[in-house]
Each structure stands twice: as C-alpha cells, then as structure tokens.
TrEMBL record:
GO cellular component terms listed in the entry, alphabetical order: cytoplasm
InterPro entries xrefs: HD_domain (IPR006674), YfbR/HDDC2 (IPR039356)
GO MF terms held by the record: 5'-deoxynucleotidase activity; metal ion binding
Presence of keyword Phosphoprotein: no
Protein's name according to its UniProt entry: HD domain-containing protein
Keyword set, alphabetical order: Hydrolase, Metal-binding
Amino acid sequence: MYRMVVMVMVAGDISLDVGKCVQLAIIHDLAESIVGDITPHDNVSVVDKHNLEQCAMLLLCNLVGCRYLIELYTEYEQGDSREARFVKDLDRFEMVLQAFQYETDESDNKISSSLNSSTRLVAHLHIQQLYTGQMRYTKNVNVAGRCNQTL
C-alpha cells in the first residue's frame, strides 16, 4: 500500500490533484484487510471479487462512520476521475514491480512474461513509459542471469 502512495507522490503529473491521488492510493486496497489479496490464481470471478471487496469496504466504513471512504473507493473502482484512472494505472504498474520482485526473489522468470498483456490496460502515458522501462530492465536482468548460469 505504501509503495503506491510514494509512487503517486513522485510520479510527477502536475495536472492532477496529488492529494486526491494519495487518498485514492491509500484507500484502493483497504478491503484487502478483510478479504485478503484476491489474485487471478484464486479462481474468484471479477464480479465476486468486486462484491466481496465492496462488502468489506461498507463494513469498514460503517465501523468508523465515514461515508467519504466509500465514496473514494467507488471513485477508484469506477474510474470516475482522472486521478482515479491514474492511480489505477499506477496499481497495474505496481503489479509489474511486485512480480519482478517475486521473480528476483524466487528466480522464477515465468511471472513477468505473463504481465506483458497488462500494458494495454494502462492509459496514462507516463505510467506506460515506466512499464516499458521496467519490462526492458526485467528482460535485461533475465538475460544476464541466464548468461551467468552458463558460465
């Protein structure tokens, strides 16, 4: 969660409300504190995942009595603002960084190859450039790793 907040603060799109982006980045994964991190490997449909997370957010918001949190979450989920779409793009890019970290930690080169298709989902030009740079770096690290294994 905190990596997303830092990414928002350093991504540098001055046309966006950075404060709003920070709020969206904080709230976007809050439901995971109840339902856990549901991934495609969990075989949970998109609709079921959304319903579980929506229910968790409603529960959390009712506990603290803050309607604004559910409004932020809904704005993020529906991509109702430029800030929400930007944070969603950053979340997709963060997934690439996380996969690279797992790949590096586990020496499993299968992860990043499955992420190549996610680039078409990223709309913000700056995030596309970050994604392209990370994928290029990942490819170079993988090639270097294979070269070292053959020596």
